[in-house]
């Protein structure tokens, strides 16, 4: 009898995974399959109170029953899309010729995203008293949440709402953070802040709770300075009493080549962030001397000195007390009427997935205390950190509020795990129509060739050498995922603009605060003047240091990296008809960066 070939490491890994799934009662395809990732998101049981067949439960994480916390308790729950809708978008991605949109279409009004007449609020915690049992309280919260969903859908026709969170457990975490905090940090991505700033939340904080909020425009390194200033002034005009600060966890990142940036990011310099002192000043304005914040100011100064002299922060220099909040401590807790209790300022950190919330916390602490990832829903449970004896941070899992934003734009904003998308091509097309891709192609390629979203993905698959396992065709799905990850990380950067930006652009480019923003970004005047395409030449996203691997990367099992295709041309196969030159050979490194 012929001897059996020994199993490869990859085969052994798959067999082990199958055995684990069988122990949990799972069946189906292997973990590397795209269908398997979808199935994993729908098979597993969870503790959500929104159990319906119309909800897709995604972002499944490995979990031991003996573990203290269930990481899947707060995983993302979105409404399922119909097969007809998905197939329609796939067909459109193959057929629709991409056309560059006007600058005016990049301008977004917050009132169009969150129209007040559509009732796009968020579920509120119902009233309760200490005589209620825990079970009665949970049932009341579940009923209130179902009533909220019924009201929301009655005022918004099908397919008009964006993806939004359907997991009641995650909304409960928001309630706890709002109740425990004295000041709320509302963290948004500067590339598209109006997508992630629900006015209903702001009005609830300042009106019903009578608390103050600070808007943190994060990832300021990914936008040109005039656009940062424009967004800051627009948000101030819409919300006059809102404190607004700009922030970046990675100032001064070089962006001449992608490879250079990745070498610089192997050690995250959390103590070198731009913006902590501005958050401190905003808190000083709000507290008005009722809390002693001198220890926080001294900590920021020490972190800056340590960074300047040592080149990196000493992780053991200062201990940070971290607390995990248990259910019993949170579920039967009432909103504190006393602000700054015991002389302590409690800051609540709230934001959508992928706005860089964990990076902001790490930067405020001065070292890494929260793991960061581009994966939406990465923060798994409520936790608190003491910056100093008088300043405490409360972290909350990322939450997606209901809105009327385009779902393709939501995906580019990073609120949906890329590896679990059923149809990524339309989002790639949306990106191409709003960046410089098409203008570069038209300058270099034949004017007769019309690009579709599918063509763009196929060209990237060819450039990267992505092949399907059986037929060895270009793996277009994997290529689309790769491009979307680059967009989320800020390497292919799409920056939206406030209304009227095109008309007032010259005013913002000469604004008196321009130099201050450039200092915050860690850039010089010469660097900003190297080109007009600042929207696409900005640095890498502050969401994920180099040592952090994307936990959603089902499609990148071979361990390769998106940057490979930029600097190292691959051996080309025979090109399909119509492809005279691969579009990514046309694009230079700086354009891709």
Task: Lay out the secondary structure.
Elements: H1 9-23, H2 34-43, E1 55-57, E2 77-79, H3 83-95, H4 110-113, H5 134-155, H6 168-180, E3 183-189, H7 199-208, E4 212-218, H8 225-238, E5 243-246, H9 258-264, H10 276-287, H11 294-310, E6 322-324, H12 327-331, E7 345-351, H13 357-365, E8 383-388, E9 391-395, H14 407-412, H15 425-432, H16 437-444, H17 453-464, H18 476-489, H19 501-509, H20 514-521, H21 525-528, H22 534-537, H23 564-567, H24 583-586, H25 589-592
Parallel strand pairs: 3-4, 3-7, 4-5, 7-9
Antiparallel strand pairs: 1-2, 6-8, 8-9
Features:
alpha/beta; disordered C terminus; single chain; 9 strands; two-stranded antiparallel ribbon; GNL1-like; GTP binding; Rossmann fold; P-loop_NTPase; 593 residues; 7-stranded mixed beta sheet
Quick structural overview:
By secondary structure, this protein is an alpha/beta fold.
Main-sheet strand order equals: 5-4-3-7-9-8-6
How large is the count of helical segments?
A: 25
CATH class of the domain at 109-253 and 269-306 and 317-395: Alpha Beta
Rg value:
24 Å
What does the average pLDDT come to?
75
Main sheet record: 7 strands, mixed
Give the termini separation.
56 Å
What proportion of the residues is helical, as a percent range? Answer: 25-40%
Number of strands: 9
Provide the structure class.
alpha/beta
At the fourth CATH level, what is the homologous superfamily of the domain at 109-253 and 269-306 and 317-395? P-loop containing nucleotide triphosphate hydrolases
- pLDDT < 50 stretches: 21-53, 255-268, 312-317, 326-332, 526-560, 562-581, 586-593
Portion of residues in beta strands equals 5-15%
CATH architecture annotation name of the domain at 109-253 and 269-306 and 317-395: 3-Layer(aba) Sandwich
Shape: globular
CATH topology of the domain at 109-253 and 269-306 and 317-395: Rossmann fold
């Amino acid at each position: 009898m012929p001897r059996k070939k020994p199993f490869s490491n990859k085969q052994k890994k798959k067999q082990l995974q199958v055995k684990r799934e069988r122990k949990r009662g799972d069946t189906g395809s292997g973990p590397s399959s795209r269908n398997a990732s979808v199935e994993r998101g729908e098979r597993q049981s969870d503790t959500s109170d929104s159990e319906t067949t119309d909800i897709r439960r995604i972002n499944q994480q490995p979990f031991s029953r003996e573990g203290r916390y269930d990481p899947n308790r707060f995983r993302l729950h979105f409404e399922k899309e119909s097969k007809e809708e998905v197939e329609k978008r796939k067909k459109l991605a193959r057929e629709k010729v991409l056309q560059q949109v006007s600058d005016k279409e990049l301008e977004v009004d917050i009132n169009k995203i969150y129209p007040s007449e559509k009732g796009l609020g968020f579920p509120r915690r119902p009233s309760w008293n200490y005589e209620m049992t825990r079970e009665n309280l949970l049932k009341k919260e579940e009923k209130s949440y179902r009533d909220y969903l019924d009201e929301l859908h009655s005022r918004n026709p099908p397919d008009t709402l964006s993806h939004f969170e359907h997991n009641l457990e995650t909304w409960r975490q928001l309630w706890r953070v709002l109740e425990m905090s004295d000041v709320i940090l509302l963290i948004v991505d500067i590339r598209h802040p109006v997508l992630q700033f629900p006015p209903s939340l702001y009005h609830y904080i300042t009106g019903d709770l009578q608390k103050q909020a600070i808007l943190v425009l994060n990832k300021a390194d990914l936008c040109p300075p005039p656009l940062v200033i424009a967004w800051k002034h627009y948000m101030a005009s819409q919300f006059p009493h809102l404190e607004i600060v700009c922030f970046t966890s990675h100032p001064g990142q070089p962006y001449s080549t992608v490879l250079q940036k990745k070498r610089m990011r192997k050690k995250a310099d959390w103590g070198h962030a731009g913006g902590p002192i501005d958050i401190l000043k905003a808190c000083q304005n709000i507290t008005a001397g009722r809390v002693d914040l001198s220890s926080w100011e001294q900590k920021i100064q020490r972190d800056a000195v340590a960074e300047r002299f040592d080149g990196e922060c000493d992780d053991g220099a200062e201990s940070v007390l971290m607390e995990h909040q248990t259910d019993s401590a949170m579920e039967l807790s009432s909103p504190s009427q006393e602000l700054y209790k015991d002389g302590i300022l409690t800051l609540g950190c709230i934001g959508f997935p992928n706005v860089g919330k964990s990076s902001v916390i790490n930067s405020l602490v001065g070292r890494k205390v929260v793991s960061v990832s581009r994966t939406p829903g990465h923060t798994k449970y409520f936790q608190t950190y003491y910056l100093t004896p008088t300043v405490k941070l409360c972290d909350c899992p990322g939450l997606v509020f209901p809105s009327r934003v385009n779902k393709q734009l939501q995906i580019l904003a990073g609120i949906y795990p890329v590896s679990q998308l059923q149809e990524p091509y339309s989002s790639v097309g949306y990106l191409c129509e709003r960046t410089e891709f098409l203008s570069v192609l038209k300058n270099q390629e034949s004017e007769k060739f019309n690009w579709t979203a599918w063509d763009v993905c196929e060209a990237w698959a060819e450039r990267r050498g992505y092949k399907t396992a059986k037929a060895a065709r270009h793996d277009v799905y994997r290529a689309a995922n790769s491009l979307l990850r680059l967009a989320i990380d800020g390497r292919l950067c799409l920056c939206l603009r406030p209304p009227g930006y095109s008309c007032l652009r010259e005013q913002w480019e000469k604004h008196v605060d321009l130099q201050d923003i450039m200092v915050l970004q860690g850039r010089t005047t010469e660097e900003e003047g190297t080109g007009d395409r600042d929207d696409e030449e900005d640095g890498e996203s502050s969401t994920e240091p180099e040592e952090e691997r994307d936990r959603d990367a089902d499609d990148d099992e071979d361990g390769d990296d998106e940057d490979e295709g930029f600097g190292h041309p691959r051996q080309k196969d025979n090109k399909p008809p119509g492809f005279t030159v691969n579009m990514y050979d046309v694009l230079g490194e700086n354009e891709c960066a």
